[in-house]
Specification:
With 234 residues, this protein is an alpha+beta fold. It contains seven helices and ten strands. The protein has a single domain, classed as Phosphatase 2c, domain 1. The strands form two sheets. It has a five-stranded antiparallel beta sheet, with helices on one face. It has a five-stranded antiparallel beta sheet with strand order 6-5-8-9-10. A hairpin with a 2-residue loop joins strand 3 and strand 4.
Length: 234
């Protein structure tokens, strides 16, 4: 239904990111691209550490704020980010999963799909307070109101989790255009039906476009391999 795509993504060697911009036609795509470009610098960094991820998110926030200051017509622009970074902790391979906003990272392993990030949104706060259930959350009028975004002052905290890397696991990064249209079980079914991560990503996008598709949708699928992760996107 939208003519303008405000999403951006990175499918790198050790860093994968999805960003969903806000601010309308003039600025949402700029914000998401600035955030992705800032985080892309991690992909060429030796000895990746969680602190470097936090610093990259802070740089992304400064870049978006700086653009708004230089372009008054774009003030108020912002973006969500969700990402996956392959790194080592004391020589042991790990994943760093992080997010700001309501773009998500899912982990799919042993036929089970679990959300690895927590949405920073008003609906999530209502869910945690027990005021609504998951079914009500899908159509709640506040479902698109987020409580953290890149482009805020002060710099919003980034949630980051470290997960040991496990052969055979798969990660899915997405903007909310995916989970707003598809149930988790539908997403899991598509992931189960496609061994190739690129085909899985394309099939998920196609499944969304077969619905009302009220928002942009971006998907990156990353498979863990014995020696190295691999990403594909659509």
């Amino acid at each position: 239904m939208r003519e303008h795509n405000e999403d951006a993504f990175l499918a790198g060697d050790r860093v994968w990111v999805v960003a969903d911009g806000m601010g309308g036609h003039a600025a949402g795509d700029v914000a998401s691209r600035l955030a992705v470009d800032s985080l892309a610098e991690l992909d060429g960094t030796d000895e990746l550490r969680p602190a470097r991820v936090h610093a990259a998110v802070a740089r992304a926030n400064s870049a978006v704020i700086g653009y708004g200051r230089e372009h008054p017509e774009a003030r108020g622009l912002g973006t969500t980010v969700a990402g996956l970074v392959e790194l080592e902790i004391d020589g042991v391979p790990h994943w760093a999963v992080f997010n700001v906003g309501d773009s998500r990272v899912y982990r799919y392993a042993d036929g089970e799909l679990r959300q690895a990030t927590i949405d920073h949104s008003e609906v999530e706060e209502l869910l945690e307070a027990g005021l609504i259930d998951a079914a009500q959350a899908r159509d709640h009028p506040a479902r698109h109101l987020i409580t953290r975004a890149i482009g805020m002052l002060p710099t919003p905290p980034v949630d980051l989790w470290l997960l040991p890397r496990t052969p055979g696991e798969r990660f899915l990064l997405c903007s909310d255009g995916l989970n707003s249209e598809l149930e988790d079980q539908q997403i899991a079914d598509v992931l189960a039906a496609h061994d190739d991560p690129g085909e899985a990503a394309s099939a998920l996008v196609a499944a969304v476009l077969g619905t009302e598709a009220r928002d942009n949708v971006t998907v990156v699928v990353v498979d863990a391999r014995p020696q190295q992760g691999r990403a594909d996107d659509a």
